[in-house]
């Protein structure tokens, strides 16, 4: 099983600042991590960074850092009480790109003691940071040995991945053209990425199509709807035969990707996102695309993104037309937006897309339609979005912008830094496209970053059924 470590950009910067002081000597920090304890991949997600003060270290040289065990005992107690994993991180100011004999000596003394402090195996780890910020690490096994972390990544404005090994596979022929554009390094990252797509209809379908043809490593597709005739105008590869067979959207799209033979591993889940199985599957991924038009679904993805340190690309499309009367069919607005959300940053709520009252209303409409209708009638809540017009041309445009947003974060190529493109809006009525940055962290989700697996799942009682 692969074990990985994810940090936010702020956490990585905090580590780098402490680990490389001006004296050129090694330094150390402790990172407490939540986790997604999956069957195929175990993700450690950074929750808290605690610097070990320089003056509490008994030795600090250019090749060694040591400290008394009692310095970290309070942190071990905190981790034990909250079920968090302990990751020890120290620096190599000399740019030595592997664990040294001194590191081995220290880890074989400290890490088994940390492991034995806890009742269960939590994949406690040791990591090294180099002067350029690159990191590598290893975790201690239940038997007391060490295995390398498969990768360490930073989920920030740029998506940075450091892998323990480099694959030597030849570039497949189907990928030759986009490797020319973005380079072998970017293609290799795509081949290793696990990406979730939530909602497999108007925008989700072309997102899946593009990711598969770019050679993404794994696609987790979540949608509990079956095909209807009204979907044929915007779901790629769907047919009336599929409609008559009442096939699930995820199964139709999975079959289409299999026929491509691009090597993408597929996890089609005919489930609602508001289920433990769906949340757990998405939480094991590296990144998520939200292709939903429901407020409570987008709120859930924002929550999941924070708890599991998942970069989240949200796609929204709006076509407003006059529904009836003498001017039926007149288009009032044709627009859409792409939001890039990083853990610990702004959210769809802080960006003003909806409020917590909207979330509660949408949740009530989903879980208790009768009560929702009653409260709507009595004026206690506002109505939530209903079915809107959908056209494949706009969906394809927004899906393309969303996938290009992923590529630009993996391989920055724009004139400005990526933080200038937190939100991109397209208005076809005015033929305009503009982008802006969203710097203000969301107070609602900031304290949830890196919590990982908790009870109830995501802190939401609705997801507290059996079998987490």
Could you give a quick summary of the protein structure above?
By secondary structure, this protein is α/β, with parallel strands linked by helices. The chain has 2 domains: 2-163, Cytidine Deaminase, domain 2; 177-463, NAD(P)-binding Rossmann-like Domain (Rossmann fold). It contains 12 helices and 19 strands.
The average pLDDT is 90
The parts where pLDDT drops under 50 for at least 5 residues are: none
Question: If classified by CATH, what would the architecture of the largest domain be?
Answer: 3-Layer(aba) Sandwich
Reported for the largest beta sheet, the result is: 9 strands, mixed
Task: Note down, in words, how this protein is organized.
This protein has helices at 9-19, 73-82, 101-117, 176-192, 204-213, 240-244, 249-260, 276-283, 295-307, 356-367, 369-377, 392-410, and strands spanning 2-8, 28-37, 41-51, 59-60, 65-66, 85-91, 125-129, 135-140, 146-148, 151-155, 159-163, 194-198, 218-222, 265-269, 287-290, 312-321, 331-341, 423-427, 432-436. Helix 5 (204-213) links the parallel strand 12 (194-198) and strand 13 (218-222). With 468 residues, it is of the alpha/beta class. It folds into two domains: 2-163, Cytidine Deaminase, domain 2 (3-Layer(aba) Sandwich), CATH 3.40.140; 177-463, NAD(P)-binding Rossmann-like Domain (Rossmann fold), CATH 3.40.50.720. The longest helix is centred in the last third of the chain and has 19 residues, at 392-410. It is built from twelve helices and 19 strands. The chain has a nine-stranded mixed beta sheet with strand order 9-8-7-6-2-3-1-10-11. It has an eight-stranded mixed beta sheet with strand order 14-13-12-15-16-17-18-19, with helices on both faces. It has a two-stranded antiparallel ribbon with strand order 4-5. The mean pLDDT is 90.
């Amino acid at each position: 099983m692969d074990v990985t470590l994810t940090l936010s950009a702020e956490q990585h910067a905090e580590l780098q600042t402490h680990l490389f002081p001006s004296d050129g000597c090694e330094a150390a920090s402790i990172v407490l991590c939540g986790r997604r304890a999956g069957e195929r991949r175990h993700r450690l997600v950074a929750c808290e960074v605690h610097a070990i003060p320089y003056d509490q270290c008994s030795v600090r040289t250019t090749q060694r850092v040591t400290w008394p065990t009692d310095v970290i005992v309070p942190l071990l107690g905190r981790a034990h009480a909250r079920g968090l994993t302990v990751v020890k991180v120290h620096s190599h100011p000399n740019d030595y790109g592997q664990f040294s004999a001194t590191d081995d000596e220290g880890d074989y003394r400290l890490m088994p003691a940390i492991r034995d402090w806890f009742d269960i195996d939590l994949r406690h780890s040791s990591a090294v940071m180099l002067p350029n910020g690159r990191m590598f690490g290893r975790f201690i096994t239940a038997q007391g040995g060490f295995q390398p972390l498969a990768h360490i990544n930073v989920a920030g404005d740029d998506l940075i991945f450091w892998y323990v090994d480099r694959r030597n596979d030849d570039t497949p022929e189907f990928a030759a053209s986009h490797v020319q554009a973005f380079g072998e390094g970017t293609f290799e990252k795509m081949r290793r990425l696990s990406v979730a797509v939530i909602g497999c209809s108007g925008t989700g379908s072309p997102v899946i199509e593009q990711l598969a043809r770019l050679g993404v490593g794994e696609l987790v597709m979540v949608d509990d709807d079956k095909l209807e005739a009204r979907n044929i105008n915007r779901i790629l590869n769907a047919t009336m035969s599929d409609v008559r067979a009442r096939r699930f959207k995820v199964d139709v799209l999975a079959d289409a990707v299999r026929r491509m033979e691009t090597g993408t591993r597929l996890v089609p889940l005919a489930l609602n996102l508001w289920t433990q199985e769906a949340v757990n599957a998405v939480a094991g991924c590296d990144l998520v695309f939200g292709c939903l038009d429901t407020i409570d679904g987008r709120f859930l993805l924002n929550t999941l993104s924070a708890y599991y340190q998942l970069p989240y690309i949200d796609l929204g499309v709006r076509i407003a037309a006059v529904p009836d009367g003498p001017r039926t069919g007149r288009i009032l607005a044709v627009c859409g937006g792409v939001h890039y959300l990083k853990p610990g940053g702004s959210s769809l709520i802080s960006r003003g897309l909806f409020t917590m009252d909207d979330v509660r209303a949408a949740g009530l409409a989903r879980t208790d339609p009768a009560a929702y209708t009653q409260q709507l009638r009595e004026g206690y809540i506002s109505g939530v979005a209903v079915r809107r017009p959908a056209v494949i041309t706009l969906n394809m445009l927004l899906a393309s912008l969303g996938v290009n947003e992923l590529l630009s974060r993996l391989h920055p190529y724009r004139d400005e830094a990526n933080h200038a493109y937190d939100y991109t809006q397209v208005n076809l009525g005015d033929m305009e496209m503009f982008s802006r940055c969203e710097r203000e962290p969301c107070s609602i989700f900031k304290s949830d970053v890196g919590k990982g697996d908790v009870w109830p799942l995501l802190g939401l009682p609705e997801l507290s059924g059996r079998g987490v």
